[in-house]
Amino acid sequence: MPHADTARVLRLAAPFAVAVAAIAAGYGFSVTLSGYLVYLGISVIVACIAILGLGVVTGSAGMIALCQLTFAAVGAWFVSGLNVIGAPGGFVAWLAVGGVAAGAAGILVGLPALRLRGVNLAVVTLGLAAAADVALVQVQFPGTASGTFVPRPGPFADDRSYFVFSVIVLVACATTLYVLQHSRWGSSWKSVAFSERGTAAAGTSVPRSKLTAFAVSAALGGISGGLLAGQVGLALPASFTPLQSLALYVLSIMAGAYLIDMALFGALLWVAVPELLKRWGVPQDWGFVVFGALGVQALASGTNLGAVIRTTWWNRTAGRARRQAATRTLAAPVTDVAAQPPAAAPGGAPVLEVSNLSVSFGQVQALRDVNLAVPQNAVVGLIGPNGAGKSTLVDVISGFLPRAEGTVTLDGTSMAGLSPTRRARLGLRRTFQQDRVPPGLTVDAYVRFVARRRLSHDELAGTLEFFGCPPPRTRLSTVDVGTRRIIEVVGHLLARPRVMLLDEPAAGLSHDEHIALAERLRQVPHRFGVSVLLIEHDLDLVRSVCDTITVLDFGEVLAAGPQEEVLSDPAVLKAYMGETEML
Ligand code: ADP
Ligand code: MG
């Protein structure tokens, strides 16, 4: 489709066009603004790069990091130090080294984040910032004692041209970040922020997602610090205090710094508020109070100034996206499906085999000696009343409950000791009963992220259409939960796993949509070569889709076998009647 290709090329070219325009605008400012404003402009850019970094770790990946200026200090330290020893390469090379060194420091600081969350992570990172501050005051930056100034790069020696240089650095950082945000890394940050379990189930390593976020965030901090060293010549510990890191964090939350334009807005506030206070004769420390108040407002209301500005600004685009999402086709009749032959005959060695699984949560024995097999090309139903242990069984099989007893084998290979990420990569995929689909992504980015393989546009769009899902460019935040969970199924299906465990995929759908989904699931082995274990509540649906059925009740297998036998078993009917009466 040439039209789609043109649109794609335009979409890819847009950031680069913006980059060129930004550099041109920077040049324009540098020749028209007063010298004083140009100097403040450099400070805005330095702050903007640091805030962009915070946007990665806090805004995208959802973690708290209160030591961004410590990473900036690492960058400034390297630039100053390399200058003192006269390292080759000049300022630009030192700036890059500072960024890489800060990125490495970011990985070290990120290690605790693999275990800590929320307030604990905040305390650790703030403690680190405080310790680094004390150390910096003691030892000072290299060159301080001897008064060795950091020279600015050759053609950018005066303030006006250094401002242009800073704009170029900012544009390079922002463009790189834009590309990263639209890569697997960016998807993994947004995914891990929304659900660590969902990320692992998609075959992506949660630790790696967090550490790449920390590394990129800290590297941007380092570049910002290095740029500051070039601006002021001699960096001082007073520019990198924990209190300032804290204020910068608050500002990035308030501005919505994961959005590149909003990072610039945050940076303007960062420089303008103290500047205005100074002009009005108010002590600059009141700036922290202003940022604090704005931050409390942002955290308490769940919205932020940046988001408000952005939605007003982009209102028309957002309106269009909403209208697009409103077209739901989930319940559309599936004509081509009806014409398909039924699923290829199941049989052969089981793809998935589960033996003697037992799990208890304290006093509750959730599963006891459960055995189950999913043959090749089969859709196996797993039914049972609420609390029977169905979701727990899926958790055990997919590796989320490693302490369970019993064995799980995929194609005859034991899964013992393998993480959920590893199992997902080996072709054992599962979906969740709760919503674990990150709303920050587009359908396209999410499906590609989960599928973990190259997908042609036609394959992706075709499969979405087959399942009645909205088109790839739709934002997941505009899609209702029921449809989001079908998109989750599509993503895992396109990974072409050996087997998929679907935990009540139809929950949240209307009756018609329920039936339509059933018809499509019946085609999955035939169309995609994937075997399915389907957890489902609706007995009619199970009857129409599943070849064999296993019934769980109070954690034990009540019945298992071909569906007609199982569904006419009096014990099964009794368990279900009890449930119906309760409902
Ligand atoms: P189902 O999916 O069939 O509705 P579950 O597998 O969610 O059932 O739950 C089975 C039993 O295990 C229930 O009694 C539930 O309360 C208990 N259970 C599940 N997860 C936990 C947990 N993390 N901690 C304690 N009890 C749990
Ligand atoms: Mg359940």
SSE arrangement:
Blueprint: H1 2-32, H2 35-60, H3 68-84, H4 90-113, H5 118-139, H6 159-181, H7 184-194, H8 196-201, H9 206-232, H10 242-255, H11 260-279, H12 286-301, H13 305-313, H14 315-325, H15 335-339, E1 347-361, E2 364-376, E3 379-383, H16 390-397, E4 405-410, E5 413-414, H17 420-425, E6 428-430, H18 443-451, H19 457-466, H20 481-494, E7 499-503, H21 511-522, H22 524-528, E8 531-535, H23 539-545, E9 548-553, E10 556-562, H24 563-567, H25 570-582
Helix pairs in contact: 1-6, 2-6, 2-9, 2-10, 2-11, 3-4, 3-9, 4-9, 6-9, 7-9, 10-11, 10-12, 18-20, 21-23
This protein binds adenosine-5'-diphosphate and magnesium ion (MG).
Task: Write a concise keyword list for the protein shown above.
10 strands; binds magnesium ion; six-stranded mixed beta sheet; Rossmann fold; binds adenosine-5'-diphosphate; four-stranded antiparallel beta sheet; elongated; 2 domains; alpha/beta; 583 residues
Tell me the total number of β-strands: 10
CA-atom Rg in angstroms: 28 Å
> How many distinct helices?
25
Rounded mean pLDDT score: 90
Structural domain count: 2
Instruction: Give the N-to-C terminal Cα separation.
Output: 51 Å
Mind explaining what this structure looks like?
The protein has 583 residues and is of the alpha/beta class. It folds into two domains: 15-248, no CATH class; 347-577, Rossmann fold, CATH 3.40.50.300. Helix content is 60%, strand content 11%. It contains 25 helices and ten strands. Strands 6-7-8-3-9-10 form a six-stranded mixed sheet, with helices on both faces. A four-stranded antiparallel sheet has the order 2-1-4-5, with helices on one face. α3 packs across α9 and α6 packs antiparallel against α9 (206-232). The relative contact order is 0.10. Bound molecules: adenosine-5'-diphosphate and magnesium ion. Residues 390-391, 433 line the site of magnesium ion.
